[in-house]
UniProtKB/TrEMBL annotation:
Origin organism lineage: Bacteria, Bacillati, Actinomycetota, Actinomycetes, Pseudonocardiales
NCBIfam families according to UniProt: HAD-SF-IA-v3 (TIGR01509)
Entry protein name: Haloacid dehalogenase
Organism in which the protein naturally occurs: Pseudonocardia hydrocarbonoxydans
One Pfam family here: Hydrolase
InterPro entries: ACAD10-like, HAD-like_sf, HAD-SF_hydro_IA, HAD_sf
Amino acid sequence: MRGRVGVARIVMPGGCGAGDARRGRSDRFGSVRSGGEAVYGGPVPLRGLVMDLGGVLTDGPEVLELVRRARAAGCPTALVSDAHAVSDELAALFDVLVLGPALGVRKPDPEVFRRTAGLLGLGVDECVVVDDLAVNVRGAREAGAVVVHHVDPERTVDEVEVLLGLT
């Protein structure tokens, strides 16, 4: 069942961030009962990862590994970049590629983040967007996403792990 703001109860299936739920731990969204049943009264759980290429994925292998781990945990992943092409190896890390003006809008327009989330089958409020440029961070935030302003790989990995429950 997809989470929505105002929903009183969400049963978390396996997947992105479900490890804490299976262990009966509490998370930032509310109390989690043993067996994976979560009771929410607040924000929508974060389930998708939207990454920038230049300045983020090019900043070290630990950021690429973060994408691999998120996808392995069941998080839908997207790459949003002004680049017109990426390597097959990089493309294989993502469920969705949004390159250049493919959606008719480009960063920092908030609509590119909304449309990308839709391609992932998620609401933008269910996505973590990672970008290194403040203007793109503002656009993603305006769209309704949770954002991580990439400054260095270690900090980005730490923040995304917490937000998506990958730790």
